[in-house]
Write a structure and sequence with these properties.
Largest sheet: 2 strands, antiparallel
Number of helices: 5
Low-confidence stretches: 122-136
Order of helices and strands: HHHEHHE
Number of strands: 2
Strand content: under 5%
Radius of gyration: 15 Å
Number of domains: 1
Distance between the termini: 37 Å
Length: 136
């Protein structure tokens, strides 16, 4: 158990509550809510992970990593649902952290990890897409 256990448990519970209380938008996309799930959810999970892995390295045990990954995937799924899409993801926190470091943008990272919004809409933009899940 690390010094991050309490923060991780709060994040995991918040993600579960967000998922249980989510009402899909009637006319997607709901970009404002999608951005909130990316910044306030995915971004916080990545921040805890990076903080634990830098400076005085804090080893995170299996339950802590599992809690962070469940929260991450819950928030990524909610991000996608704000765009009217359902995704079945299995992203690791490390993958998300690497995407945030690479793009320097948590919303763009959510787009890369989920493939949402639709890749075809950005085909000409030069965005390099990679997704760890199935989009339905």
């Amino acid at each position: 158990m690390s010094d991050y256990r309490d923060r991780i448990e709060v994040l995991a519970e918040r993600a579960r509550a967000d998922r249980r209380g989510f009402d899909p938008p009637e006319d997607p996309p709901d970009e404002e809510r999608a951005v909130e799930f990316a910044r306030d959810g995915v971004g916080e999970v990545v921040a805890v992970y990076v903080e634990a892995r830098t400076g005085e390295f804090a080893p995170l045990d299996r339950p802590e990593m599992s809690g962070m990954e469940r929260a991450l995937n819950d928030w990524l799924a909610l991000y996608a649902r704000c765009h009217g899409r359902e995704v079945d993801l299995d992203c690791t926190v490390r993958e998300a952290a690497e995407a945030v470091i690479e793009t320097r943008d948590v919303v763009e990272s959510a787009r890369l990890l989920t493939g949402v919004p639709d890749r075809d809409a950005d085909r000409d933009s030069g965005v390099a897409w990679r997704s760890q899940g199935r989009v339905r």
